[in-house]
Write a structure and sequence with these properties.
The longest helix has 13 residues, at 62-74. The protein has an 8-stranded mixed beta sheet with strand order 6-7-5-4-8-9-11-10. The protein is an alpha/beta fold. 28% of the residues lie in helices and 29% in strands. The chain has a single domain, classed as Vaccinia Virus protein VP39 (Rossmann fold). Strand 2 and strand 3 (20-21) form a beta hairpin.
Amino acid sequence: MKKVLTGDGSYTLFSEEYKEVYHSISGAEEEAVKKYVEPTGVFELAKKGFINVLDVCFGIGYNSAAVIDAALKSNPDCKIIIVGLEKDEKLLDVMKELSPSFESYKMIRDIRDCVYKNPNVDIKIVFGDARDTIKNIEEGFDICLFDPFSPKTQPEMWTETFFKDIASKMKVGGVLSTYSCATHVRINLVRAGFDPKDGPSIGRRAPSTIAIKI
């Protein structure tokens, strides 16, 4: 996979299969923080001592690393459980070649046999088609980091059916964050039991989407 330098000095990757980058070229690390950490309330959730995160399309792990950094900064004793759903097993090797500024990214690089554990952080990556693997994971997520390739390129990931499966795994009041604000995406979120609102605009004019499980 080709490394791509983004606007904040961090690198992302270009997918030859989907012909898209994994994170915004305006700033890969900035996107993880501004679109996936701050809008989902990680800082406040961490003060309660426990965060359960579903990372759909785990990719190169930037979104999860940003969550871990923010949670442990807010509360060093916070327990963080992350379940990542991902299709491409080759990314485990590719991630070892990346060095973003997230302090916790060393945990991502240390994932072995799809698992990383320390006293505070428990990461598990489940490989396969997320539309299938989500059916076999436990419920109770506070946050969903939803980061597939674009609705145009990977439309199967943005359906009402898949959003319903995600909703079934989340707590009432849980927050799903994604970069797309496409009308049909928001309609599918509503039909799946979410209340979508505008999220921050980072790297483009259009807002992202924050959706509350109702």
